[in-house]
Amino acid sequence: MALDKITASKRYASALFSVLQSNNQLEDGIAELKEVRNIITDNPTFITALSTVTLTESQKHELLNNLLDNISSEYVKRCIEMVYEYGRINDMVAIIDEVSELNNKNNGIVQAEAVTAIALDDDQIEKLKASFAKRIGANTVELTTKIDENIIGGVVMNSANFIYDGSIRTKINRVRQLLSK
Amino acid sequence: MSIKAEEISALIKKQLEGYEDELAVAETGVVTYVGDGVARAYGLDNALSGELLEFQNGVYGMVQNLESNDVGIVVLGDFTGISEGDTVKRTGKIMEVPVGEEMVGRVVNSLGQPIDGNGDIDTDKSAPIEHKAPGIMERKSVDEPLQTGIKSIDALVPIGRGQRELIIGDRKTGKTSIAVDAILNQKDQDMICIYVAIGQKDSTIRQQVETLKRFGAMDYTVVVSAGPSEPAPLLYVAPYAGAAMGEYFMNKGKDVLVVYDDLTKQANAYRELSLILRRPPGREAYPGDIFYTHSRLLERAAKLNDELGGGSMTALPIVETQAGDVSAYIPTNVISITDGQIFLNSDMFYSGSRPAIDAGTSVSRVGGDAQIKAMKKVAGTLRLDLASYHELESFAQFGSDLDEATKAKLDRGARTVEVLKQGLHSPLPVEKQVLILYSLTHGYLDKINVDDVLKFEKEIFEAFDASHSDLLNEIKTTGNLPDEDKFDTAVKDFADNFQPSTTNTEASESK
User: Fold this and answer.
1) How far apart are the C-alpha atoms of B146 and A6, rounded to whole Å?
2) Which of B25, B90, B120 is the best residue to mutate to test the A interface, defined by the most A CB atoms within 10 Å of its own CB?
3) With an 8 Å Cβ cutoff, are A179 and B89 in contact?
4) How far is CA B417 from CA B357, B426, B454, in A?
5) Which end of chain B is more exposed for a tag (fewer CB within 10 A), N or C?
6) B98-371 maps to CATH 3.40.50.300
7) Given pLDDT bands bounded at 50, 70 and 90, which one contains residue A181?
8) Which CB contacts under 8 angstroms, 24+ apart, belong to A21-29?
9) Are B12 and A166 an interchain contact pair (Cβ–Cβ within 8 Å)?
């Protein structure tokens, strides 16, 4: 049975990450991978073309070389080539995401999404970042914000499989449960 | 009516006392697959097996499979409202159902929610549905009989409190009726009954509940129902929920009778969700742990020792066979788990001997201790009588030239079969069972026409109720046969004065 996408991308990612790390090319490598990810997501037909059977092998190589020629990191280049040859080019985005995930973990960076009822100003965002980083023991927090009026007030933080729910809506629900007992 | 604002606000304050303003932290996952009562979710790295999860739309699920990247979840409710990409939250709790005295007399679903339209169940106690069975030291050997009120069971396959006795047979052979009759007979016995219906038609359940109500049995019965239209996971958890409700009473020192009707359908539901969860199929496509599914359920039936209150939980699981095939997978499994089985024979059922209990293949492995002394005395030879009757019966069909001894055996056999017949929903107290079986084994029925046996039975009960209730009472209270001479004279007096029905005598003379 073929490995599923998640398992496979985790393996490729951890290999690439440790190679980059041991050769001290982490920062450059990650930056380039982000570029590659942008190229792939901006051109949805690119991956489709690489995995289709209607193009010949040489045509595909030509396409791929366009991308590879612009990559300076040798390891990233080789990784993409290998992923392509092993027929997993479809999973490239997942692999890149996995690598940046590993990098974040390594540097104590946590990505989080703050859901609020009204827009936050910069000062508030900074405060939120600081207190959230303290709470979960991270060095830096990369925060994205989202506005959802349904939560009435307070803030809901979504981060790495955890929800920190401090919204008024949830509190009201809890009071309602107590009253209806 | 005036509204007293102060009282109301005091009440609200009291209710809100438990509220704590804290941040709700929950681990979440993302649904990657949903269908057929099963969902898969990515994330939830710390989820426990058997843990309860909450989906975004409020539906609950239970963790079944823990895999390297995702968890397999059975959805306990409507899965059509869940879609790919939804979040699932951990609750940190193992699945629980409400338990307590308040459950008695109610009809609930597998989650313990009322479905009888009689409002909420006001109980604050709950118990996890999966609970480890009592261990060796917590148990006591079964020493007290559970009277089912069915002559052929109490005489031939006696059931003790804390025993597990399987009721097995083809469809439409009266399995459920036996279980329901056993529940009806527990009236005024300080017994709590739990009837777990798994995959039974809702109309049938309605009918059973009406029957229980009509005979006043709902006063001590809880009905747990998971209908055929419910998702498979609910059918799978129903018996565990029923067992949890029973354990509450058992731990309080009470005697409990649980009926699982039936485990074949539970096994089918478990097979369904196991296959969808992609667990490897085994024999008859059942998953590898199907035996454990049933053994851990039935092991929870127990007789507790006196230190723990001496409560008991008797289990009557029901299993359906196909064309009498007891060697199929589920029947053999459950037969080997239980302490005996009551086998119902469809041929006997259609030939009119109901309940259609096949005395030859039915056994009770606890046996002896589960019978009162009086019953042991009168029923001792019954099994042998029946066996030799059935053997001779086929043999006697070839010739009419039979010696006296054979003829006597055949006559006795025919009357035994007749005595063991019993109407639906008419359980018989044990002292009366002893009385009629005494008359049978001491030959008082031999002179009577077979067709008159039921008349004899009816009249002897009436006669004893009227003039010898002291004798019946003695059996009931002491469990022993009363003074042999006195009892024998009483039966003999009645037998001598018994008037056979005229039409039958004529009919037999003309033969």
Assistant:
1) 57
2) B25
3) no
4) 10, 17, 11
5) N
6) yes
7) low
8) A21/A106, A23/A75, A25/A73, A25/A75, A26/A103, A28/A72, A28/A73, A29/A73, A29/A75, A29/A76
9) no
Rounded to the nearest angstrom, the minimum Cα separation between A174 and chain B is: 8
A10's tokens: 């985790």
Pairing of strands B87-94, B363-364: unpaired
What percent of chain B clears pLDDT 90, i.e. is strictly above it?
Answer: 66
Query: Model ipTM?
Result: 0.73
Measured CA to CA, the distance from residue A76 to residue B76 in angstroms comes to: 46
Q: Which residues of A touch B16 (CB under 8 A)?
A: 175, 178-179
Three-state SS at A104? helix
> Hey, which CATH number is domain B28-93, 3.30.420.130, 2.40.30.20, 3.90.110.10, 3.40.50.12780?
2.40.30.20
Distance CA B429, CA B469 (A): 13
Handedness of CA B482, B484, B490, B496 (dihedral sign): positive
- Fold of domain B377-510: Lysin (1.20.150)
Which tens digit of pLDDT belongs to each residue from B147-164? 999 999 999 999 999 999
For A20-47, what is the mean pLDDT? 89
Q: Which residue type does B42 have? A: Y
Q: Which amino acid is at B502?
A: T
Range list for CATH 1.20.150.20 in chain B: 377-510
Q: In chain B, which segments carry CATH 3.40.50.300?
A: 98-371
Which amino acid does the sequence have at B406? T
Quick count: other Cβ atoms within 10 Å of Cβ B155?
A: 26
User: What tokens were used for A9?
Assistant: 């991308």
Burial class (CB in 10 A: 0-12, 13-18, 19+), B233: buried
Question: Using omega within 30 degrees of 0 as the cis cutoff, is the peptide bond preceding B287 cis?
Answer: no
Kindly determine whether residue B42 and residue A6, on different chains, have CB atoms separated by under 8 Å.
yes
Average pLDDT, chain B: 90
Adjacent-strand bridge partners of B60 = B54, B76
Nearest to B364 by CA among B323, B316, B324, B428: B316
* Residue among B342, B355, B430 nearest B157 (CA): B342
| Radius of gyration over every alpha carbon of chain A, rounded to an integer in angstroms | 21
Q: Are B68 and A175 within 8 A, CB to CB? A: no
- Among the listed ranges A133-137, B138-142, B443-447, B451-455, which one has the minimum average pLDDT value? A133-137
